[in-house]
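Subject: two folds for Thursday's group meeting

Dear M.,

Sorry for the delay on this. The cluster queue was jammed most of the week, so I only got both jobs back this morning. I'm pasting them in the order they finished. Each block is the input sequence followed by the predicted structure tokens. Could you check whether the formatting survives your parser before we put anything on slides? The first protein is the one we discussed after the seminar.
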Amino acid sequence: MRNQPPRPATVTRRTMLRASGAAGSTLIIGMALPTPAAAAEALSPQQREMVLQVAKAGAIYPIEVPSFGEPGTASSRVTVSRLRDAEVRLQPARLAAIRAGADLLISQGLLAAPRPALLAGIGRAAATAAPAERQALVAVAALGAATVSRHLDPASDSPATVWIGGLAHLHDRGVQPSVLRHLETR
């Protein structure tokens, strides 16, 4: 038995906790459980649903978002899991703006609205919004865009500002946004 090489140590959760002591276990447990502040910053189920609706509408309007190598159609990539992945990349102030923007759309009766009514409602809200409200709508659209494509930054306003501005412009001109029929079924 002396000539055998030593067995490599197996690191398990139990050996890690035993080696790290009480302070280490508190750190590990603290990292696994969300803090009350983090839970307070999260979107409510209704706000998440509103962002998902905006993401689905933006996935195909005015054109379908390219895949950039991701599998599935743009609409099929709009999932709660992908939304949460994008959401955790945001700072608390950005999440607060998204909550405000989602609440604005919800207050205007757009939760569960059909896509044409949703697009028109977003345009109306953006056209009549105060600057802070419009920025909140842009933040919602940016999170929606990052849900559709992981290559987009949920904290970047660039594509979302153009999209929200375009819908506001259509509203100002009295034009109803319309999705291409073959994309509505996706």
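Second protein, same layout:
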Amino acid sequence: MGDGGVGTALRFRDFRYIWFADLASIAGDQLARVALAVLVYGRTRSALAATVTYALTFLPALLGGVLLSWVADRFRRREVMVVTDLLRAVLVAAMAIPGLSLLVVCGLLVIVVLLGSPFTAARSALLPDVLPGDHYERGLALVQITGQSAQLAGFAGGGLLVAALSPPVALLGNAGTFLLSAALVRFGVADRPAPAATADRREGGTVAVLGAIAGDRRRRALVLLAWLVGWYVVPESLAAPYADQLGAGPAAVGVLMAADPLGSVLGAWLFTRFVPAPVRGRLVGVLAVGAGLPLVACVFRPDLPVTLVLWGLSGMLATAYLVQTQAEFVRATVETERGRAVGVAAAGIIAAQGLAVLAGGLLAEWTDPATAIAIAGSAGVLLCGAVAVAWHRATTA
């Protein structure tokens, strides 16, 4: 990449190690998701049980973001990352024990996902200290690009690896990625002191941070824009019925599901590579609104190639605005509250995506998949437009 590309963030040693550790964990997690789905379905022959198990790899993060993100503001953030990685390695290895009750496996899985919240909060709070100035946005974009790529590779190759290795061995592989991540962070990232003590370190700390975000016009607009990205993930959840509506067949489902992640990779790279840093903040609202417009066009029931372009364009614009929204939000938050604020914001994104996907499913039942996606895009356009106006007023006041 050129000097202005996202790869410039890799010049910073601490970020390189954090990035490698994160990449290893994501790849391992995707492998574990496939392994768990195969393991549970193989034992129960129940699609519902496999789906519930898959949902458990995401949903506890909502609770963890609210209840556990304070850890990243109380202890040294490098140590938070190392300890949570080690704990997750032990728990995932335990899940690979032959004959272990599925109820116990699911219980261990919930704890593993919960522990991911303080890790993510600590990593996100640490990045602004690791990457100075404009390199912070480039680092976020690189994390987004490689994260999406690792997820695609994990899903694409996970099934083959699980078939070759067996689910328990694949789970042990995931435990190994957590150990690798812990080692990379511990020995590659400089030690930094815990955030300075504040009067807000008590049981109501997270509630206090929520109140502080709600009372800050800039951060309130930013977090709302981030949460509204949920409307733009609805197409991915409706890929199967949409493909059926087009008469494209099952083979098109995977291609449709890949359109948004591929657009995300392109959007993160283009935005940080070609848009000057002073301009990015001003484009947040425009991009947020623009991300919904391609989905509105689905009301015309375009054929498969056109749909792929529309969904990819939506993912590209949504990721571009989300990267900048996250950067602006973290910069606007004082260092001693950063972990909790990021944890709450991330939990809200997960909740918003879940609610939007549920709404999209209900709309598809009442209408049809194409209309439901168009309505979701319209909701995103209208709501993001209103919040974008609030963001503009907050930054120009």
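Two things I noticed about the second structure. The chain has 18 helices and no strands. Residues 201-397 form a domain with the Growth Hormone; Chain: A; fold (CATH 1.20.1250.20).

Cheers,
T.
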